[in-house]
Specification:
Layout: H1 5-26, E1 38-39, E2 50-57, E3 59-62, E4 68-71, E5 84-88, H2 93-96, E6 105-112, E7 114-116, E8 119-123
Parallel strand pairs: 1-2, 5-8
Antiparallel strand pairs: 2-6, 3-4, 4-5, 7-8
Length: 184
C-alpha cells in the first residue's frame, strides 16, 4: 500500500508525539544522576535509610570475637567524640572478605544507617556494599520459628492446611451432600 509523502510524515509525527508523551507520563524521560554519597557527619539525618556514605578509613580494628570495625575518625579525635562507625560481624567474614585493604583509603559504602551504642553506623555484611550494592538479606527470625528447609512441615501454621484428625482429600466426605437414591 502506497501512501503519499505528506501523509507518511503526518503519521510519523503523530506516532513520535504519542510515543514521547507516553514515555514522559511513565517517567522514562528523566535521566536521574545517582545521589551523591553523604559524609559521616550528616549520617544522623538519615537514620533508617539506605544511603551511600563516604568516609576515610584510618584503621581496621578486630576484636577477639572476630567483630571488625572500620575506624573512620582521625586518631587525634577522642573516641567519645567519634559519632560514626562501620561494623562487620564475624558471621559475615566470608561474604565481606579482608577489610585491611581499605585501611588509609577513602571508601564509599552503601547501607542502612542505624543507631549503635550512642553513635550512627552501618553494618557491612557483604563486599558488594563497597560498590553500591545492598546489604545481605537477613530473614525475620520470628517468622521462621520452627522451620528449616529440609523439613516436610509447612512454614506457616494455618488451620486450613491441617486435617484435624479427619482424612484430608479434595472434597471431604462430611462436607458433601448426601444423595438418596429413589427406590424402584
Amino acid at each position: 500500500m502506497f501512501l503519499p509523502r505528506s501523509l507518511r510524515i503526518a503519521l510519523l509525527t503523530v506516532f513520535a508525539v504519542s510515543f514521547f508523551s507516553a514515555a514522559q507520563a511513565l517517567g522514562h524521560h528523566k535521566t536521574t544522576a545517582p545521589r551523591p554519597c553523604i559524609p559521616t557527619d550528616d549520617a544522623k539525618d538519615y537514620v533508617g535509610k539506605d544511603v551511600c556514605v563516604s568516609a576515610h578509613v584510618y584503621d581496621v580494628v578486630e576484636l577477639k570475637d572476630g567483630t571488625r570495625f572500620l575506624d573512620v575518625c582521625p586518631l587525634s579525635m577522642p573516641d567519645a567524640e567519634c559519632r560514626f562507625l562501620m561494623l562487620s560481624l564475624y558471621s559475615d567474614h566470608g561474604e565481606v572478605g579482608e577489610l585491611r585493604r581499605y585501611q588509609n583509603q577513602n571508601v564509599l559504602v552503601r547501607g542502612v544507617i542505624r543507631p549503635m551504642h550512642g553513635r550512627m553506623g552501618i553494618m557491612i555484611s557483604n563486599a558488594r556494599q563497597f560498590t553500591g550494592g545492598p546489604e545481605k538479606f537477613r530473614p525475620n527470625p520470628k517468622l521462621l520459628r520452627g522451620f528449616f528447609g529440609q523439613s516436610d512441615a509447612m512454614p506457616v501454621s494455618d488451620p486450613n492446611l491441617t486435617a484435624h484428625g479427619r482424612p484430608r482429600s479434595f472434597m471431604n466426605r462430611y462436607l458433601t451432600e448426601q444423595h438418596t437414591t429413589a427406590a424402584k
